[in-house]
Description:
31% strand; Aminopeptidase
Amino acid sequence: MLPLDDWSAPALARDPAAPAVGPFPGAGFVRAWWEHRGSGRLLLAEADGAALPLWEDGGLVAIAGEEDLTDYHSPLGDPAALRPLGEVLAGRLPPGARFRFDSLPAEAAEPLADGLADGGVATLSTRHEAAAVVALDEGYDGWLGGLRGKDRHEVRRKGRRFAEVLGDPALVHGRDGFDEFVRMHRLAGGRKGRFMDGGMEGFFRALLDVPGAVVSVLEGGGRPAAAAFGFEDGGAYYLYNSGYDPELAAASPGVVLVERLIARAAGAGRTRFDFLKGDEAYKFRMGASARPLYALEGTA
């Protein structure tokens, strides 16, 4: 493994080896995280056709990007090179070092674990999280029609309530909505409200430069009611974070925001709406299915 100090390295320009994982494994996201949140040493492991940015701190080697902020991890490059990459990792981890490679879809976790075993490193693989993913193959009408009757009724009822209280909902997209997103986040009580401190705001502001980043503000009658920070690519929209004005809670702006984002994704021909990590019940009421994520752990 070599120190990762060149963000223009060709290895970092490869696509993620696991499918449908958004921007999280890419250089843009990792660099923003490292510059605002990272500590210790940043390393790059490479095998023919695949690479993986790593983070070593306090005797622990992990995939670059802390678990609470990085919804998917995946090596970059050829999926067929993941097992050889695991074997390379086994030979280059510092002797006695602990490792934890979290948030891996099965498509990445299984060959990496096999490669580590090939290199003589015993690995414990556990399912530790799940992403919640809505299939949009049949478009908006197919999504809405596929909800349970009670849940479909609630989506429609809350949409009508929003229109009655605030006016017809409208989504406004662009960087100009970032300050509104931060403001609404800070209006929340408890842990969520404390989350968006100055350092975290700087991290999110840096993410605006990651390809596919989009801020969406839900308005009713011209009044901002909710906001989302997400990422989009040709196949999916990834809902990274959101907030709403608690004074407007009776109008259900959170549900309407998600419904409008799903409608936008489906209208653009995207076939997935990804709520990302977390098993909150509302995600599954909105039609999501669980995508298991795995952690590989052991000692070199």
